[in-house]
Amino acid sequence: MPKTTRPALPAPPPTVEIEGGIRGATRRLLLDAAMALIREGQVPTLPEVARRAEVSRATAYRYFPSRSALITAVIDVSLGPLRSFDSDEPDGRRRVAELFASTFPRFREFEPQMRAAVQLSLEHWALERAGRLKEEPYRRGHRVGILAHAIEPLAAELPVASLARLHRALSVLYGIEARVVLKDLWGATDAEVDATVGWMAEALVDASLRETAAAPAKAAKTRKSAR
């Protein structure tokens, strides 16, 4: 059987830090104002952030030229430490479990910010589709690199296609979306959300490994029946 070349798995993005000095202090002031407004239940505009921070609109726009830039910075500051997830656990199943167990508590802490990011992303999708979007669209996707590191040990056990499918499947669980479904539709507690998502992640990994282990026997049975 010919060897299949595996695609390189991207490294997780680095943690974002806020610079010091007056510029850093002003940036932090604006971000704190944005986070306060988000906790009050809205995706704020730059003028709203400027009013809360008691700075001019021009100042706010100088730091964040759009809501996309603002929410990107909010998420960078909120979830930055998660993006530097770096494990030397050699077992793929355990490394995936470690990722979910170590990072989901921070998702609880910054749930309003993550929901705001989803809200803005959906709004921009609708406006872009209608040809009415006036700023650069807000894009998400850091979880792809984070999960790539988590499943890296499994590259030695899974075919390329199976690894890619597992990567995509885990990306549905790792983030705010599963949390929204479980909390908003089912009324699940934070602990129930963490337990359910952790169980689903483990089940996906186990299913991928079982399927791969069973593939040779299945192929042999198919060849035998075809004779």
Automatic annotation (TrEMBL):
Residues 24-82 form the HTH tetR-type domain. InterPro entries: Homeodomain-like_sf, HTH-type_TetR-like_transc_reg, HTH_TetR. Keywords: DNA-binding, Transcription, Transcription regulation. Residues 45-64 bind DNA. Gene3D superfamilies: Tetracycline Repressor, domain 2. This is TetR/AcrR family transcriptional regulator. It comes from Rubrivivax benzoatilyticus.
